[in-house]
Amino acid sequence: MSLYKKIISLSFCLIFVFCSFAVVIPQDTEARTLTQVEADIRECEALLASLQNEKAALSGQIKELDKAANLTAEQLNVYIQEIEYLETEVELTEETIQAFVMKLSEIEVSILIEEENLLYYQQLYASIVRYSFMQGDISIFELLFESESFSDFLTRVDNINYFLKYTDSVMESITSTKNDLEIIKANHQTAKSKLDEYKSDLEEKISALDVKRSEADSKASSLGTSLSKVQGDYISTSSLIEQTKSKITALRKERQEILDADKNFIWPVKTTNYYVSSVYGWRRNPFDSSQMQFHNGLDIACAHGVPIIASKGGTVTRSEHAAGWGNVVVVYHGNGISTLYAHASSRVARVGDTVKQGDVIAYVGTTGSSTGNHLHISFIINGAYEDPAKYLPKGYF
Length: 397
Prior knowledge:
By secondary structure, the chain is α+β, with helices and mostly antiparallel strands. The chain folds into three domains: 3-100 and 196-259, no CATH class; 102-191; 274-390, Glucose Permease (Domain IIA) (Distorted Sandwich), CATH 2.70.70. The protein is built from six helices and 13 strands. Helix 1 packs antiparallel against helix 2 (34-61), helix 2 runs antiparallel to helix 6 and helix 3 packs antiparallel against helix 5 (150-220). The radius of gyration is 31 Å and the shape is elongated.
């Protein structure tokens, strides 16, 4: 096939791709569902891959230009390859930055959970110490004389040994949780530093990309008609790639808007038979009424197995069993906002799931440090707990 025919063929391909682009990308987003938007995102991503392949093919055509312009064509091809490399680097860096933003939110929630675990074990150990002080030291002879029989004596000795072993296990849990917390905080600081580095690196790559594009345009102007035609097709394809990327960005924004369709959060349990057993703020420790404890969320008491629903749409960042929280699920809603649902009997949502407002993510239970069946819900805003009453609808409590 001659170079002229190849250029004509590539032109028709570009016209076909442009028409496909116009058809695939929806213009009317009214009353669209999350499933429809995610399908459009997948189609646009497939189109983007096709356009990038077309762009690579156009880059290859440059090698077939006239011998007289061969040296210049080779120089332009080098520029094109460098531009493609820089574009890929910019795209990868942007994706990495997005991933690090999400990771930072996950680490901040992890820090809060480990701090709650540490507080739980410290309070437990304090209770053991108070109990030991109240009982006083008992010698083996006192224990022998107080026992009704030798069998009773052995039982009391066994109970003391079990108590000592349990105390040791609590101390080990405190040490282990402190170590875990130090590691998580170190990871958080490392992630923040890395995020700053990636942001700085992105600015440098975008600047280098602009310079390379300007140099390539200048180089292209010195070439013959044949190369100009191929370069024109190449630029058209690049433009379509940028449009497709912009549309993917818009669709992802639309997906988030659908998840946030109701600007308000909804009540997190699917039942009318409930009562609020504890609000946000200082309260008596339910396990030791002599102590005050800061309660970082809202407790909703209801029957075992009642569905727990996502108070707002988002991405599940945690779904696990933690010491004090029991079965816990965390949903990230964007803009630094997460909700935490604790003490569930079982979990439905898994890490990485996209959930809509009202989706069932778990079921009410009394796992972890709990005095009865209830849901504990916390609102975590930019790594700090806030009063759920600020966000949940009025009239429910």
